[in-house]
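Question (not urgent): is this output format expected?
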Amino acid sequence: MPPNARLPLDEIRRRFFAGQALPGQALPTDILRSWQRCRGMGLAAGSHGGERLSEAELRARREANADWLESARPALAGLFAQAHAQGLALVVADNRGWVLEQSGDIDFLNKAERLALTPGMDWSEASRGTNAIGTALAARDGARVRGAQHYLERNRSLSCAASPVFGPQGQLLGALDLSGASRKLGDAQWMLLQAARGQIESQLLEEATRGGWRLSLHADPRLLDGPAACQLVFSEDGSLLAANQGGLALCGLEPDAWRPRHFAALFGQSLEHWLSRNGEALGLLQAGPQRFSARLRPPRRRGAPSRPTPAPHDSTPTLDGLPNPLFASALKLLEADIPVLILGETGTGKDRLARALHAASSRQAAPFVAINCAAIPEGLIEAELFGYQPGAYTGASRQGGKGRLREADGGVLFLDEIGDMPPNLQARLLRALQDREVTPLGGGPARRIDIRLICATHRDLRARVADGGFRADLYYRLCHYPLALPPLRERGDAAAIAQAMLDGMGAAKRGIYLSPELARAIRGYRWPGNLRELSNLLATLLALADDGAALGLAHLPAALREDMAAQGHAVEDSAIADLLSRCGGNASAAARALGISRSTLYRRQGKVAK
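Got this back:
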């Protein structure tokens, strides 16, 4: 790299905005082109961006994007879990750059709120200058923007990575964005983002495939089902219905420039001719100068269920190994407007359960507002919860603040780590819950609120009441029917939970799975960090793994391998007895959960009996 390419970014900004020439390679090409676009639009570096959409306008935009967002839910859930665990925020925007959804680490979300990186705000390049969302949409390609690479001065504290999402006919649908501290946004997070985008686009293509013939093409026949394969969907008469990004490129189609193509025009033979010679078997297909291995799959039968429907009283785990009855009880409480109190060790997935309850409730289309009572400085939490009038305290916004309780109006409020709420605020929260109205800090009229409440804590609230750290009246207001989340080690087959989490992160689409040896190790490990520890590990393994990999012990970090070895990759005898009890004495079921044979289980039972 030439020496003059190492100019400080502030000096590069000064020269650019002064209209001076920049040395070669002073900026990444995509950033420089974005700056030039922004200058061409007359955008000032000191701009503050546009105004927020009204609630009705935001609701309309969400409804307009509901189809692809619904298909994206499994991938977004997996990406959210990683973002939250790694201290990042996940932002979803539509194809115009309007932010539709935001979730993730509460500390960063507070910062994002100050910078207007929140639902209802416009983050197109025209409004916010160079930023990951707007630049990814403008360039129709992934974008990473760090610090002062942002065009607007006010956004230079952000670091973001975004990827556009395309529909099955190449139409631009929106963008996924991960934002957070620069040190937390590396190649691993970029790969997570790309994997989530790929999973969403594959799901959309899968849905388009139900009425057509799906053609997979790749030079290597072993990779026909992998994400690198070209996928095209044709109607019975050979007309192109849908394609993934590789398929669009093969057909000479640019994103957002769909036009009709025909099987015969692309491959020199009709669809009917291919079927007569190859059927659904593997064959060779020529496309221009390129020669591919190919496989053609028939349309799905209409009316065929995509997955078995569970029986009404099925106790199969539905969320990270939790049994249906626990989830069903929590949902009934929420729908009956009874506060849901979730208890459990750190890392057991209390926030994941809260979000799943919101998604399954009658308020799924209304706001879900989460606040971590332990993460906000005591001096700010009152304003954060109840809002504030302009000038209510030093540093307060001149426009005032709405407050998270009012933001949750009509939806669900999730108070995480409620056991750490400062005592002086507990009385205000109790009154707000009883009166269903909020008075902002600094005075002003009380505002009515309609919220459903979910609270969570890892603390023993009864003990906190006894030692004076938690108000008894608030405890009895919240503690109607507390739900205790078991730690991961008590949820049955940890390997099955791990594989389901992997699949939710996109592993199934890439052909990545747990080897038997790693599955046994996962079952035998105690997981002191619970789901958070497991989720972080799986996300890392997935980011590092090649497509089609069988994840084994060699893929684990050395320290974790040593910890697992110290435990002997086995469950203690007392845990075996407990597992047998939870399996109703069914030795076969317990043996499967442990990854051992029934005879081995019987031998261990004999040891316990002695």
